[in-house]
Every structure is written in C-alpha cells, then in structure tokens.
Amino acid sequence: LKALLLAAAAVAATAGAALAETVAVTNARVLTMGRGGEIARGTVVMTDGKITAVGANVAVPAGARVIDAQGKVVTPGLVVADSILGLTEVGALQDTNDFSSSDDAIGAAFDVQYGINPDSMVLPVARLGGITRAIVQPVSSGGGAGVHEHDGEVEHMTAGAGGHGYDQAGLFAGQAAVIHLGAGPDLVVRPKVAMIAPLGNAGADVAGGARGAHIVELKIALDDARWYARNRAAYAQGNGRELGLSRADLEALIPVVEGRMPLVVSVHRAADIRQALRLAREERIRIIVEGGEEAWRVADELAAARVPVLLNPLSNLPESFETLGSTLDNAARLHRAGVTIAIVGNEGSAHRAREMRWNAGNAVAHGLPWQAALEAITINPARIFGVDQTFGSLEVGKDADVVIWSGDPLEPLTRAEQVFVKGEAMPMTSRQHQLRDRYMPRDTPYPPAYR
C-alpha cells in the first residue's frame, strides 16, 4: 500500500509539473481576435493553462519552453458553433449516437452534457483542424435543430417524439453544452448554454403540418413554463391548470422564458425568420438563428433585433422551397448589415467539422472580409453563447487555446502544426494516422499511380 501511495504521489507531481509548465510562442504573426489586434512579430506566453502575456515586446519568462514560430501564424483555437462532436461515432450505428432521445416526456429537458464521450475517435480529427471548443447541440429522435450524417448523406432533422404522449412533445430538441477538445475525462465546459428548437417546415411537421399551428403550440408551451415557474407548489399538489409538457421540460424552459438562456431556432426562409423575430418580441425571449439560408433578405431586421446567425456559407442551392434564396454571399451581406455571424462546418459539424475554416475561406471569396471570417470561427461563436470571457481570443487571463499554423488558417493547404488546449500541447495524430502507419507498405513500393 505504501508503494502504491508513493507511486500515485509521483504521478500527481508529474501531472502538476506538466500543468505548471510555461510555454512561450515567439516571433509569430499573432492574430489575437481581441484587444491586441494583429501583431506582426509577437509572443504568446501560457502558464498553468492560461494566457499570461501577449504582445510585440514580451519578455520570455525564465525557464519557459520556447517555440520559435518564425514565419508561422498564431490564432486562438477555432470554435464550432453547431456540432454533435462527442455525441456520435458512426452515423449508421445507433449505439454510437447520443444526440437524440425518443422519450416523449424528455424534450426541452434532454441534456447532451451527460452523453459526451471524451474517447471519441472523431475529436482528434477535429482538433487536427485547429478546433479546440465546440457548442454541442442535441437532435431529438424525430429531429432537432440541425443536421446529422448518415452514410455520407446530410439528413435535415425535424423535432418531434411521435404522435402520442405529451401534447407538445418534440417542440424542443433539448439543451446544448460547450465542450473543450483537450485531454481529461470531463470535456464539458458549460452545460445548458442554449435551448434548441426547429421552426419553419420542420416545426410545421411537429404540429401536424402547419406553421401557424406550430407557432401557437410554441407560445402555449412558453406560457405554461411561465405559469409553472410562478406556481410550483400548486403544481406539486395537483392544483392549477392542465399543462402540456412534463415537469422536467417545464423546469428546463424556465431559463428561456426568463431570458437567461437563448433559444436556437433552426429556420431557413425569410418569412419564417420574420416569424421567429416576432415570436422573440412577443414572448420576450432571446433567439439565435441557425441555418438562415435566406437571412440576407431580412438582414436589417436581424441586425436591429441583435439576433446572431449560425450559417454554412456554402449553402447555395435551393434544396427545398424554404431555401430558394440561398446564395454564396449570404455571410457577406449579413456582415455588411451588422449581423453577428458564426460559420459552421459540414454535415453536422462532426466528422467534417475541420472544414469549417475552409467554409470561412469560401465566404471571403464571396465578399466577407478576411478578418470577419476568422472572427466567425473564433470569437463570434464564443460571444453568441456567452462564453467569450473564457476563450475565443488571445488575451491575458483567458484559457490558453492556441494554434500555430503553417500559413493563412483559411487556406486549405495550411496545416495546424501545434494545438494547445488550456495550455496543454495536444498530440498531432488521430486514428486515421495510426491506421495509415500500420498498413502503409514499408518494403514494397507503391504502384506507379500512387507515387
């Protein structure tokens, strides 16, 4: 027992020393995404998982491990704003997917934080693309607030737990959480950062096929949550009016109706976005638009209401009547109008989350300023979900999420050469690398076509 205790103490001391390590990245082009702006030849110092110095004339602390980033670009870690990272492994295998629930009584109360898998093979792949944080959103069994992958195809999800059980089952997909992509058994940074719900055609499917019925059901559910918040004692005694949601769902909706938790609405066409803005005004709730292929048509209204938009700038085809107005310059038009935008990855921002930065680069090619595009994958997602005091920019006191790039991070050929999450250097490998190294021919040369 004494030997085991001494060994455990030695391990703890080693881990503490690693955490306490000071790292200084020097001679880099530093893009802070914060008050420091761009520093042509700057230094970033990390100690105990925090950024302790950023600037052009920063003295390197004695004993620090120095990384000379001459000719490199340093940015904050990228933040994906609409993802199922940590909740999925193989889309076709249900037992590897934890982003949905078919329980009629659990809609708004569904909480993704309890299903995050820190050992997911998908996380290192995203991290190799410079992603250090993600806002993980739920998808209910009948659908939800976004998309997911299945055999390489994108499936748009619509909320709804079925035609039985609670009256408003499926109106809400559940609650999102912020995670980090670093080491450790617990990746959850902040749970319950947003409630997720569909609008438009997906919402209409929940309410029997009509948008008008869906909006009415949403208003009823929100009103029920307000009544429940004021009358918990009466509810517990079986007194009061009949409510359409379970107690768990009513509890989960209280922060929404009190304005403490935003409602992320998956919505696409301009008319439905206007209805979402009207719902927010009438119910006095905060909303975030997700999807928003036709958001450019109501950009001024979104800006006036200070409603941000999570979008994929590559959405440019009218896949349905909801998205007839899709255009590659959606992001640029929204930015010019003053709308805060966050750019997401492809197919649920999970297996292809790393493509988020390429999407941002495509938005630049269609009119979005380069600085705004980088903001849309770093500080903007953090601001939108209220966690920008912790990460999203390179500023003293924030978590040391730092990426050293071989060049312009929005260029496809650029590589993340080193990724730090909370000051800890991450291994720059994934299962794909391991499989490559295991099965790559060593003694036999490749066929001519592969050379």
Write up what this structure looks like.
The chain has 13 helices and 20 strands. It is α/β, with parallel strands linked by helices and 451 residues long. Strand 15, helix 8 and strand 16 form a beta-alpha-beta unit. Helix 3 crosses helix 4 and helix 4 crosses helix 6. 29% of the residues lie in helices and 23% in strands. Strands 1, 2, 3, 4, 5, 18, 19 and 20 form an 8-stranded mixed β-sheet that branches.
Largest sheet: 8 strands, mixed
Structural category: alpha/beta
Alpha-carbon distance between the termini? 57 Å
Instruction: Look at the structure and give the mean pLDDT.
Output: 88
Strand tally, please? 20
Strand content: 15-25%
Return Rg in Å.
Answer: 23 Å
Can you tell me the overall shape?
globular
Unreliably modeled segments: 10-18, 142-169
- Report the helical percentage: 25-40%
Number of helices: 13
Layout of helices and strands, plus pairs?
Elements: H1 2-20, E1 22-31, E2 38-47, E3 50-55, E4 65-68, E5 73-76, E6 78-83, H2 122-128, E7 131-136, E8 139-140, E9 143-144, E10 147-150, E11 153-156, E12 174-180, E13 188-198, H3 200-206, H4 211-230, H5 232-236, H6 247-257, E14 263-267, H7 270-283, E15 287-291, H8 299-305, E16 309-311, H9 330-337, E17 341-343, H10 356-365, H11 370-375, H12 379-384, E18 402-405, E19 416-421, E20 424-425, H13 431-439
Helix pairs in contact: 3-4, 4-6
